[in-house]
Write a structure and sequence with these properties.
mainly beta; 43-stranded antiparallel beta sheet
């Protein structure tokens, strides 16, 4: 049977219509159709038409390049069209599962109570309780999620909550890249840690980014964090999560600052960059601070002022979630404020490296500096190979190393030793270990005996232990002590100097040697006095010796219970007076004498021996007795004076032929 042209055209039109319908049903497969829903049962957006199809299931997938991009499943679907039998232009879905496939790993699954799907743009709005979960265990929730397949993203214009492991947070809105698996959060963004593995309690920022594949949560803009009593503020923060959802490290950048718990207050820190590491239990194991410089500030406590540790790099070590150490590199410096001469003064210690240790309560215990250490304190400027600061005692100790001693130079001069302690509370300086001192002349050396400070040269000293108290203006030398300038010297077991009464005291094996006043015709020999005790008054220019006194000048030696040495305006020994049981001996002449008092006057070249009576005996055994015997050094003669109503007695030894 032949078909007419009209019949052939109708058949062609029917075939084309069948092809269109077949294409439509392949794109949105449907189970057996249920009765069409009443018009009032559902409403679509303007221009979507009327509900024409009610399906008990909905499955749809889209592919590109032979690979599936995403699939959609719904338990119930209402299709809208412009008329019966026409293709649907809009769908309303219930109990939706959106599966987004990525070549970077397992798919991202999004579930929602409901959704709206536009087959023309393939865009979908998921509503109700929308939950997106990736293979890494990240969960994102929002009341509205817009799936944009063209942009490969999920847009969440309303409030968003997210969680992975012990970290949970919220944001005002977000965009999730379905290919990159990057969640971009718009602020304010807040986050909180929960459980023992949480690295922080709370976080807030203006914006944030979560990279699921890399396991990184980045916050930016006015970032603030709290972890127990500790705080953090910075421009940006990135936390890294391992596959087991544990945070193993965090990086803070830009204007980093915060607080760390310490006794009596909060220790503050500041840096441009801070890197933190966390152990398997979520406890912090280390923090690296970097800046120009980075700083750790220990607050003032009691009489101790605020202390600041500054360095380009400071590495904080923790033990049991407690700050235990701080290692500083790049010429670290410890600073604190003080008062010097009534004006503000910044004390400091600087070295090649430094290591601070902290007590169990978090308070600073000590800091040790090593390598080319320089100090600036109220007591003076110091150099040493090693220095340490004991916070509890508020004490600085300068130490020798490698054959190089510690040195401290202040207003009074310089002290050198194997160890030098500077007590912050009292200002006392203690040098030990072959200690030496160089006291500069002038007002600063007012406590030094004038006979040891006659020139513009410094007065030198040494002892096993030297103590300087600049506040009390005293100095003490203990253990084989000595003070000297040129040929003038004072030796003793211990020597104490005081500015208040311009005095000096010495005890134990005292020995003083000095230049004697010069006679008109000759240069007198030097004078030396030894005893067990010495008291010197600079105002009177008198030195008093007690107990076992021995005074010598040239070949002449005198002994007594007590002696006074008087100095002239040129600080030369002008007169020596011995009292008590006095004996006199001249090795050159063999002459000896005894009496109650002896007065030696180097300038006059005489020695007067007084007694009741005074007795002198020469090398031949001749004896002379009187109230006063005058020995003249230059002539070798002896003049004898009798007391009132007294007499002179002479006994001469003769020898037969």
């Amino acid at each position: 049977m032949k078909l007419s042209r009209l019949q052939a055209a109708l058949l062609a039109l029917a075939a084309a219509l069948a092809a269109v319908l077949a294409a439509t049903f392949r794109r949105v497969p449907r189970p057996p159709r249920e009765p069409s829903p009443p018009a009032a049962a559902a409403k679509g957006p303007e221009g979507s038409g009327k509900p024409t199809t009610l399906l008990s299931g909905f499955d749809y997938s889209e592919s590109a390049g032979g690979r599936t991009r995403f699939t959609v499943h719904a338990d119930r679907t209402v299709g809208f069209a412009q008329g019966a039998g026409l293709p649907s232009t809009w769908y309303r879905l219930e109990k939706v599962v959106l599966t987004l496939v990525s070549d970077r790993g397992d798919p991202l699954v999004v579930r929602s109570d409901a959704a709206e799907y536009d087959p023309r743009t393939r865009a979908m709005n998921l509503t109700g309780s929308v939950v997106a979960r990736d293979p890494q265990g990240t969960e994102v929730r929002s009341a509205l999620v817009r799936f944009d397949p063209a942009g490969n993203r999920l847009v969440m214009p309303a409030e968003v909550s997210f969680r992975r492991g012990a970290v949970a947070g919220r944001a005002a809105s977000a965009v999730y890249g379905t290919i990159t698996r990057v969640l971009t959060l718009s602020g304010p963004v807040t986050a909180a840690g929960s459980g023992p593995g949480a690295p922080f309690d709370t976080l807030r920022a203006d914006a944030g980014t979560y990279r699921s594949m890399e396991g990184e949560l980045s916050l930016s803009g006015r970032v603030e964090g709290v972890r127990g009593p500790d705080t953090l503020a910075c421009d940006a923060l990135t936390a890294h999560l391992l596959e087991n959802d544990r945070v193993d490290r965090a990086l803070a950048l830009g204007n980093v600052s915060g607080t760390l718990v310490s006794a009596g207050g909060r220790g503050r820190y500041r840096a441009e960059r801070a890197t933190a590491a966390f152990d398997a239990g979520g406890k912090i194991s280390g923090v690296d601070l970097a800046g120009a410089p980075a700083s750790m500030v220990v607050p003032a406590e009691g009489e101790k002022p605020e202390r600041r540790l500054l360095a380009p790099i400071i590495r904080l070590g923790f033990s049991g979630d407690r700050l235990s150490t701080a290692d500083a590199q790049g010429r670290p410096r410890l600073e604190r404020d003080a008062i010097r001469a009534g004006l503000p003064f910044a004390e400091s210690i600087t070295g090649d490296t430094a290591r601070a240790t902290f007590a169990p309560d978090g308070s600073l215990a000590a800091i040790r500096f090593e390598g080319n250490v320089l100090g600036a304190t109220v007591e003076g400027a110091s150099t040493s190979p090693v220095a340490s600061y004991a916070a509890g005692e508020d004490r600085i100790t300068l130490s020798a190393a490698g054959g190089r001693d510690a040195e401290l130079e202040g207003d009074r001069g310089k002290v050198v030793g194997r160890s030098i302690d500077i007590a912050g509370r009292t200002g006392t300086v203690t040098a030990t270990g072959e200690a030496r001192i160089f006291l500069r002349p002038g007002p600063g050396a007012a406590a030094v005996p004038s006979f040891l400070a006659t020139s513009r040269k410094p007065t030198r000293g040494k002892a096993r232990r030297i103590v300087l108290d600049d506040r009390a203006r005293t100095a003490s030398l203990e253990g084989d002590a000595a003070l000297w300038q040129d040929d003038d010297a004072l030796f003793a077991d211990a020597i104490a100097l005081a500015d208040a009464d311009k005095s000096a005291r010495a005890r134990g094996n005292v020995r003083m040697t000095g230049r004697s006043a010069q006679a008109a015709t000759s240069d007198p020999a030097r004078s030396t006095v030894t005893s067990e005790r010495l008291r010197y008054s600079d105002a009177e220019r008198v030195a008093v010796f007690e107990e076992g006194v021995v005074a010598s000048r040239g070949t002449q030696t005198a002994r007594g219970d007590r002696a006074e040495c008087r100095f002239d305006s040129a600080n030369r020994l002008d007169r020596t007076i011995l009292d008590g049981h006095v004996t006199l001996e001249d090795r050159a002449t063999g002459r000896r004498g005894t009496g109650a008092r002896a007065v030696d006057e180097p300038k006059a070249g005489t020695t007067n021996l007084a007694g009741n009576p005074a007795v002198a005996q020469d090398a031949r055994g001749n004896v002379v007795k009187g109230a006063v015997l005058t020995f003249r050094k230059e002539s070798g003669s002896v003049e004898v004076k009798a007391g009132e109503g007294g007499r002179i007695e002479s006994i001469y030894q003769t020898r037969g032929n």
